[in-house]
Design the sequence.
């Protein structure tokens, strides 16, 4: 009989990742054992008690979301395992799908049972398809799952993983574009008009372990509000981006081994990626790594992204390129995306390359942010506004140098912008 032990330290999802490129089904079952045979009501209780929150970026309590879908009662729900990961600074979902696909698929199976779904859609980028196909074939041979699984390929768009955009892709209408329906409506009427639970793949992997080892085990790491660990895609610490597992509530300084001396070569830290916000390096290294701490500093940890901007690059030019990219990723359906984001991107480009053309000086930028915030049908404009606001605060000295002395000589770009040259993570 296989003896299965719960991880005792802060390494959980990555527990077996160091031992093989891909943890196949036999290795997965040898390490974690079979899923326990729990009834739906017990699963809902276990997830509630664990305090698990969604790791796709919203950090919404998972138990509340599951109960809302479970009681919608109009027709059989659908579960979407969402690995679309359109954020350029994030790679942890693709990493997890590649290395430990069965943790994700176990979690999706648990979610389906808990909410009464008979259909699971695995929504992933093209690079993850063959690995998931293989994993599903192995599970079918062993008769592991009672519900039907299918794969839908996500388009390469920043917003592809947004809940209503994922549902649009699966429904075959306007792939990767958010639709004008609220989150509650998707829970009631999403894929094929059925109640739909859209859950990030890392969240589902945590569920797979919570179902096995229980809520108290899960809570033994993390804080009261933010239990457990988070996978974080870190860019700028090593030669190439790396995925690390961070106990929530610990500090990035400890998790990444960055002391005061090493921190001096980092101009600022972007938490949460391009929909997140900049934080001064000293703050980022010393604050608890949680969504609530990041929000208290005007940022967000989003889907677990930390980008350390090195000295020697112009932060204003870097941000201007990102804002233009984000402007292009808007769906062009609402006023803030149609008009506001272009104005914001143009103003950032003025500050970066033609600072004397920036009418109203630095104060113009927060004013423009105020014009787009809270006015879109989705949160995309809010994310861009947060990126700009925090950039102007954290890099205020550098921005003022542009205004007084002119732009920097820009060298090799650092922040990854899809479709353009980059030294970052994509
Ligand atoms: S705010 Fe922008 S991205 Fe969001 S739905 Fe409207 S047009 Fe699309």
Sequence:
């Amino acid at each position: 009989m296989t003896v299965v032990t719960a991880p005792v330290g802060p390494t959980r999802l990555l527990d077996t990742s160091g031992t093989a490129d891909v943890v196949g089904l036999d290795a997965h079952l040898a390490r974690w054992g079979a899923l326990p045979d729990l009834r739906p009501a017990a699963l809902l209780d276990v997830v509630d008690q664990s305090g698990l929150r969604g790791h796709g970026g919203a950090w919404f309590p998972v138990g509340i979301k599951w109960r809302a879908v479970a009681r919608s009662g109009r027709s059989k729900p659908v579960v979407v395992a969402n690995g679309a990961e359109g954020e350029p600074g994030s790679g942890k979902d693709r990493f997890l799908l590649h290395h430990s696909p069965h943790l994700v698929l176990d979690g999706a199976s648990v979610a389906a049972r808990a909410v009464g779904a008979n259909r699971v859609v695995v929504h992933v980028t093209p690079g993850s398809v063959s690995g998931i196909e293989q994993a599903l074939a192995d599970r079918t041979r062993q008769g592991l799952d009672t519900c039907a699984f299918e794969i839908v390929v996500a388009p390469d768009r920043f917003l592809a993983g947004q809940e209503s955009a994922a549902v649009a892709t699966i429904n075959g209408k306007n792939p990767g574009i958010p639709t004008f329906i609220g989150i509650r409506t998707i829970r009631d009427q999403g894929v094929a008009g059925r109640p739909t639970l859209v859950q990030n793949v890392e969240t589902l992997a945590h569920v797979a372990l919570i179902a096995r080892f229980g809520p108290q085990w899960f809570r033994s790491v993390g804080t009261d509000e933010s239990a457990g660990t988070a996978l974080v895609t870190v860019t700028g610490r090593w030669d190439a981006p790396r995925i690390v597992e961070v106990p929530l509530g610990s500090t990035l300084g400890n998790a990444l081994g960055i002391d005061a001396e090493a921190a001096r070569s980092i101009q600022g830290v972007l938490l949460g990626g391009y929909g997140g916000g900049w934080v001064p390096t000293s703050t980022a290294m010393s604050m608890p790594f949680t969504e609530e701490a990041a929000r208290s500093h005007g940022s967000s940890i989003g889907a677990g992204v930390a980008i350390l901007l090195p000295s020697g690059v112009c932060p204003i030019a870097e941000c201007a390129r990102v804002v233009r990219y984000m402007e292009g990723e808007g769906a062009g359906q609402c006023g803030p995306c149609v008009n506001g984001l272009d104005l914001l991107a143009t103003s950032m480009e003025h500050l970066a390359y033609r600072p004397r053309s920036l009418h109203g000086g630095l104060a113009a930028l927060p004013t423009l942010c105020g014009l787009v915030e809270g006015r879109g049908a989705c949160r995309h404009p809010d994310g861009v506004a947060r990126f700009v606001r925090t950039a102007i605060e954290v890099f205020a000295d550098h921005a003022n140098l542009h205004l007084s002395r002119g732009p920097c000589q820009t060298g090799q770009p650092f922040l990854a912008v899809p479709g353009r040259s980059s030294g970052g993570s994509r």
Remarks:
- The chain has three domains: 25-219, 229-310, 315-405.
- The first helix runs from residue 25 to 32.
- DSSP finds 19 helices and nine strands in the chain.
- Residues 48 and 63 are 4 Å apart (CA to CA).
